[in-house]
Amino acid sequence: MLGLPSPSQAAYGIVPGRVLFLIIPILSLTLFGYIIARRLVPLLGAAPDFRLDHASARIKRVLKIWLGQWKQPRYFGAGGLHIVIFAGFLVLAVRSLSLILLGISDHFVMPGFSGAIGRLYNHVKDYASTLVFIAVLIAAIRRGIFKPARYAVPAKYGKDHTAEALLVLGLIGTLMLSESLFEASQAASQIQQGQTAEAVLPLTLAWLFKNALISVPLPLLASLHLAAYLVHELTFFAFLCFLPLGKHFHVITSLFNVYFAKLDRGTLKPVRWGVADEQLDQVKSFGVKTFQDFTWKHMVDFYSCADCGRCTDNCPANAVGRPLSPRFITIKARNYSFEHHPLFGKAGNGTPLIGGIYSEDEIWSCTTCGACEEECPLLVEYIDKIVDLRRGMIDDGNVPQSLQKPLKALESRGNPYGKPDKKRADWTKAVDFQQSCKVKVLAGNGNGAAETLYFVDSITSYDDRIQAIGRATARILNRTGENFGILGAAEKDSGHEVRRFGEETLFMALRDANVEAIKASGARHIVTADPHALNALKHDYKDLPPVDHISQVIARDVKSGRIKLNPIENPDSVYTYHDPCYLGRHNQVYDDPRDVLDAIPGLKRVEMSRCRDRSFCCGGGGLMLFYEPKEDERMGVKRVQMAAEAGANVIVTACPFCMVNIEDAIKVAGLEGRMTAIDLAELVDQQMVREQTRTQTEVASARLAQVS
Amino acid sequence: MARVFTYITHKNGVADDSALELAAAARTIDPAASPTAIVTGFAAELDAVCEAIRPSYAEIWKISGENLAYPNAELVRKALVRVLPAGSIVLLPHDHFGIDLGPGLSIKLNAAFVSDAVGIDGVEGKCLNVIRQEFGGQVSAHVRCDVSTGAAITIRPGSFKALENAPVNGTVVDKSSEAGALESGRRYIETIVAESGDVDITKHQVLVSIGRGIQDKDNIGIAEELAEALGAAVSCSRPVVDAKWLPKSRQVGSSGQTVKPKVYLACGISGSFQHLAGIKGNPLIVAINKNPRAPIFQVADIGIVDDILEFLPEMTERVKEVSGGKASAAGTRG
Amino acid sequence: MEILVCVKRVPDTSENEIQLDGNDIDRDDLVYSINEPDNYAVEEALQIVAKAGGSVTVATVGGEDDEEVLRREMAMGAKQGVLISDGAFNGSDGRGIATILKAYVQKNHYDLILTGVQADDGAAQVGGMLAALLDVPFASLVTSLEVLEGNKLKISREVEGGNKEVSEIDLPCVLSIQTGINEPRYVGMKGIRQVAAIEIPSFGASDLGIDAGGAGAAGAKVTRTDYFVPTLGKGAEILQGSREENIDKVVELMKARGGLN
User: Which residues in chain A have Cβ-Cβ distances shorter than 8 Å to C16?
Assistant: First the structure.
């Protein structure tokens, strides 16, 4: 059917369409290729990163996170808009390609899209184009006028990014408009000429334009048609080349970033991929000191950041005024990369990052809570980078004085408090406790001295207040007939925070000592009440028997009826559960503690608005308790205020560090008398019905019955 | 018994308290003889010091020199070596000057050296029995010192109480010419006075003093509240300043300020002698500390074994009740 | 600039209750490390050579056990560790140690010698004695240090009232360094492992030309005869009541003293 001339047929000035629209793609694709090649250069000199394993798991995740935009709805407004735009882009991919080819091949139609499929596609793409346009409009109003807080750029980080955002929205809007105009002008001309027009469905942009153009004279229509096409192609290729220059690089890299993203939680990257622990002596420099020390995947992370601010919005350190913003960790690194590996000109040499784009306090401020990684829709990783930067600082001897003392104590005495290692099991010797509960110290004679090892770790062993959690845990294990013991003086700090503060060598020494002691104990199951120890034993240590948190054990026992719980006596107590970062986010144990609480008759429980994977860090554990951060207030204080807002007067937690921080915060927040904190083990210990202790045979056979 | 000399330190024409304490220490070494004071300095200030100690010393040797106007241990040592008879026993205060002078002096006198003595346990033949402390004051030690070729001994300030003898009319002997011309490889330039912070703890009658036991910078508020309720000021020991929780101007001690309050509340302070050296005038010292073995309980008048983090807020409440809720007039907010 | 820092390995007694064992303290459970002021001295030395060039040597008088602190300071950046060891040195008093160090110093050339202000025995003596034996100027309690043109230093000493006494001192000299002069860098296990294999030379009495009377028990004029925990003399009156009662008593006493209106 004749309509308007195809762009390939027309002349643009003196240049024939098919020549012009061959040159434009060739030039821009060349430029684009060049830009991409320049962007790849730093990756070539980067540290290795092994990301090719478990292809099927990676593909599944791409389908869920990338294609399925799984994380977007966590911010419903922006997420919804993004899903529309993203879906629209995917749908319009075919149309975009067709349009390009239309410029060189007269009246080009995509193979397979000539018949009914083609018509159906046209309708779908028209709605897609319209929805994208509407979404872009709303987004522009949001960004330009309402300016949501998380996009703000604090002065120290430079200029505002709104201009870039609006530019891109403008480009996308222009694409939609020009595409629809191109279509509409064709449709209008066909109607004027009395030809059978392709139906343009109502309420689409194309439909609106068509109706507006219905009486426009044909020559003008033709000009509009060809102009729209030119605008579309120029915009398209300009946008393409613009992508790698800013935050919209994520349009290209997101697929790869999600594919190559870390599969496991709670783990840390090795000092250098491909170098085993035994060979680490050969590595001269540990950690990230200059940009090139980052791995190639970390560099792709920097490229992939969409500057959405969700990470910082959820970062507890940022919320209390510490000098850390995860978003700007990434953006600063990205800008550094752009500046030092420019598109034209020589690459700059590696200047130190600490003291350059990053400050020491910025990097020490992180509690490794993982909220940022949980939130990021592109799966940008943060913890590994922070730890790598810390490794670099430790390597250079650049450690805050407040951390040097506990690190030294860990080296010489196996605990950060400097207390004698011989006294590590003294918590079991409290007079009242010892009478009701004898705790075995597994002396390392192998041969099942106990089935289960209770790994206590340092704070529970030495802190006067927290020892109560150890005793409660021991009593629970005792009463359920568990055959358990502790390592006693042979136990050293799990080293969890030692590793996350970058002291890899000290961590390995602690780990090796513990692994030896654990193996010598002959235990076949490990239980701990300390989520940091849990995470270390599960993810930082290798080849250990299975590890559980006490809440998981209690939940199982409650379900099986082995533990029975007395009702709560105080009718005014309202409980809320605070998810510890290393039990919840990093190890995905959210329900077991809640099930336990809900099994206590008469227990009134409320949820804080930030709960489960959005739990707000209490302030951090291990070495973080010794660090003196610059902050406006404490994370713990914010957390207890959240509990109060939720209507609770008892905070239940399942981590000794959370307990320390929260009890402290209750005082500082002035809520003493109105809010208390209790550990899950302490609560269960308190409410547990005291039956006769089962014999070990009864326990063993009950367990067999469960398994079979 | 060799002749015993005491070196007198002074500032602005006023003799240090150690002048009389050293005399008392000297008496324990040789009860029979009267010690001789040695003072270095210049002009009117030197004379004023000599005059001030005449009631307590039978003989005073003065060494005057322009370059001795400010006490430079390197110069003073040379002067003493020329002037002191062989085999003398010289007592010095164990302060920043004594630490500077004592060891080198003992070498040049070819004499023995004992540092930071807290007690003297008599003479045994050619040996003097001295008592010292080690390991931050946690244990004491008996030390035998061969004084046959003399000795230089630094005495911990406050460990000997000034004697209350009838005043003598001491003679001042000018030994300046024997000292002769003095020069050294170390030259005094100036003294930079510490910035007085917002609070001058030396002017307060009551001090709420905190040590390591305060545990965290954020807990200092409870001390400040008590200080406010008492109309007192918050002072501290060295670890608090080292951790940068309070400025140096709040530090009580040998390297900090010397205070003379009526009441001194030592909260979570272990009681190292360097800290105690800054407390003069025999105030009521109340010590609150979790550790029943803290050395502070040796010197305090009243001791309470308790957790300051709990004790202080409760005390603040009580003080507010008792004083009717109004803070005392004296003193700025701590 | 060639700098020598004399260091000592001491037990960490801050957390522990010290127990006596015969004439000594019970050392079974003690953890040893470098004397803290010495560590500050090494850091200061490292900062000086970083600007002025040269190297830092750390030396200690002791035995094999003391090598570990030398290695730690070498991991921190000291170029060389030196052990001065001989059975004949046992029982040396402060003067004896200083004599031994003097013999070592005279066999080498150092522009500056640093020690920490004091060690576990609180004597604060070796630095001053060493300077006098070497006939070089000395200053104690140094809290800041600046290298000047013309072979001298500008130093500040910590005196009473928090004041700083500023002086100029000619090189070569000996200084004793007070804690807080700088912020010592961290030494990690990795650094220590990397220096584990480096040879530490050891010098004995004959290497240094020290005769029997000069050091060791024979030459000592000062001997510690025992340790003891003094019977608590008068000490404080420890209040035994409840917290409320104790507070009331304190308030009463404060009123009596005129400390409370």
Answer: 420
Number of domains chain B contains: 2
Count of C-beta atoms within a 10 Å radius of residue A218? 15
pTM score of the predicted model? 0.88
Query: Quick one: average pLDDT of A554-574?
Result: 95
pLDDT tens digits, B142-169: 999 999 999 999 999 888 988 888 888 9
Domain that holds residue B279: 201-322
Asked, for residue B193, whether it belongs to a domain, the answer is no
A277 touches chain C (CB under 8 A): no
- C-alpha C93/C-alpha C125 separation (Å) is 10
Q: What are phi and psi of B303, to 5 degrees?
A: -125, 140
For A645-677, the DSSP string reads HTT-SEEEES-HHHHHHHHHHHHHTT-BTTBEE
ipTM: 0.90
Domain check: are B249 and B157 in the same one? no
Kindly give the confidence (pLDDT) of every residue in chain C, 261 residues in length, as a single tens digit, with 9 standing for 90 and above: 999 999 999 998 766 667 888 888 888 878 899 999 999 999 999 999 999 999 999 999 999 999 999 999 999 999 999 999 999 999 999 999 999 999 999 999 999 999 999 998 889 999 999 999 999 999 999 999 999 999 999 999 988 877 899 999 999 999 999 998 999 999 988 999 889 999 999 999 999 999 877 889 888 999 999 998 877 666 788 888 889 999 999 998 888 887 776
Cβ contacts (< 8 Å) between C14 and chain A: which residues?
Answer: 418
Q: What is the CATH number of the domain that holds B259?
A: 3.40.50.1220
Asked if B52 and B138 sit in the same domain, the reply is yes
Q: Number of CB pairs < 8 Å for A and C?
A: 50
Residue type, A158: G
Query: Rounded to whole angstroms, how far apart are CA atoms A460 and A470?
Result: 6
Task: Tell me which chain A residues have a C-beta less than 8 angstroms from the C-beta of C187.
Answer: 397
Contact residues on chain B for C261, CB-CB shorter than 8 A: 231, 323, 328-329
Determine the CATH number of domain A290-395: 1.10.1060.10
Question: Which of the following CATH numbers is that of domain C2-219: 3.40.30.10, 3.40.50.300, 3.40.50.620, 3.30.420.40?
Answer: 3.40.50.620
Distance from CA of C189 to the nearest CA of A (A): 6
Query: Is the Cβ of C242 closer than 8 Å to some Cβ of chain B?
Result: no
| CATH code of the domain occupying A560-687 | 3.40.50
Q: Nearest residue of A to residue C14 by CA position?
A: A418
**Is the CATH number 1.20.1050 carried by domain A419-557?**
yes
Burial of A105 (0-12, 13-18, 19+ CB in 10 A): middle
